[in-house]
Design brief:
Two copies of one chain form a homodimer. Chain A is mainly α. Chain A contains eleven helices and no strands.
Chain lengths: ~220, ~220
DNA sequence: TTTGGTTTTTGCAGGGTCTGTACGGATTAC
DNA sequence: GTAATCCGTACAGACCCTGCAAAAACCAAA
């Protein structure tokens, strides 16, 4: 069940290996693991897009990726995880970036700066997001399972980090700040993938909109 | 495995039955179905809170509710649905309320009015939300499965309804408007359940915050 | 090249979710 | 009272996911 796409993956892998011939066994293993993970993801997405989400069983994906079903779960904790894009940001780095900001900086300012920083890291992976966005549009139930737990935890953490900032007048204010800015970031990414332009600019635009408020809308 | 709670439910049910002795068979069946649904929900929540989410298998819930596992799925499409509160709003009524607003009203105004209207309907059920909120805090992964698909569809619909309103300057603006106002409503509900005050006031407050923007935060 | 340790893959068993189907009992309609 | 309809249930079966232990692949040193 090998496809041309798989072969391409493997070939480019060989090249990379030859070029960077000096790597520790540790690195070698990590690289191979990452590549296999990506290959499985590709197989999963291809099946889901071509034959529908229903056809994308673990068995089918594993067959396409030339591994046993059991091995699939050595790489992904759930089927949905394989059908989700590489996370755009981890809760950890988000929190880390935020806590690196001065504690007396207004919360919104900090969040804006953090969003800008994330946007920088985002650009290289934006191109890979399109098929996943297509999947997400066709099967909204996918949006849920993989990310939701992480996202909730992230929002709670941000909430904690934002509460004590100056200018935050209460619990509701803090909560709103977090969901609005997080929503702004996500919206900017979505628009960008949908063809609305470069992420960085859209993030700027989104934050400006939030900053000005919706009085005129 | 009947509990006092169940008995209470059944007794009040009897009373209601006697009082409203005139009901069509149609109504009778609907009422019984709704009550059984609620009883199953109660059983599920009680087990999950008392013994942990892990113990809340369909089998255990069914046993506690005195039905067969197969019957459980005649009432809920998934286990998670039984552990989620009655939906605060359906996509349909949300959209309906929104499309009842004049088409030339600024989008944010319309959304604000709709949120107010929803808040009115919300008040009676707020009291029942506490155990579900507790569950959601303990097990964030629950937040996902049941609502996410619906929520995505709702947001997409709102997006479509908002695009054409005056004052909406682009796709990003529309998207932001929707996620921010939706987030405001959800945040207000959460704060209210957490003990922050009456929902209506919190919704007002949240929308005022959005209206004024985060320039000072 | 062989050897031996480490990592990876895999098979197997088992628990859990969820669906289609078909049968039997209860409810409703006539 | 009988027929039509609705509802709960058993059963079979597909799929998801996990722990465990054996097999296979890998890799470094002899």
């Amino acid at each position: 069940m090998h496809s041309l796409h798989d072969l391409h993956d493997l070939q480019s892998l060989q090249k990379v290996h030859i070029v960077q011939s000096m790597e520790s066994p540790q690195e070698r293993r990590e690289r191979r693991r990452a590549e296999k993970r990506q290959a499985i993801r590709n197989a999963a997405v291809r099946i889901a897009l071509d034959q529908g989400l229903e056809a994308a069983t673990v068995e089918a994906i594993s067959a396409a990726a030339d591994i046993s079903p059991r091995t699939f779960f050595n790489y992904f904790a759930s089927k949905e995880e394989a059908l989700a894009p590489v996370p755009l940001w981890t809760p950890e780095e988000f929190i880390e970036l935020l806590s690196a900001r001065p504690a007396d900086e207004p919360a919104f300012q900090s969040l804006k700066v953090v969003a800008r920083a994330l946007a920088q890291r985002l650009r290289p992976v934006m191109a890979d997001l399109k098929p996943f966005m297509e999947l997400r549009n066709r099967y909204p139930e996918l949006a849920a399972k993989a990310r939701a737990a992480d996202e909730t935890k992230l929002l709670e953490s941000l909430l904690g980090a934002v509460r004590s900032r100056p200018g935050v007048t209460g619990a509701l204010h803090a909560r709103l700040l977090v969901v609005a800015t997080f929503g702004a970031a996500v919206s900017a990414v979505q628009e960008s993938v949908a063809g609305g332009g470069p992420v960085e600019e859209l993030i700027e635009e989104a934050f400006t909109l939030l900053e000005n408020g919706f009085r005129l809308s």
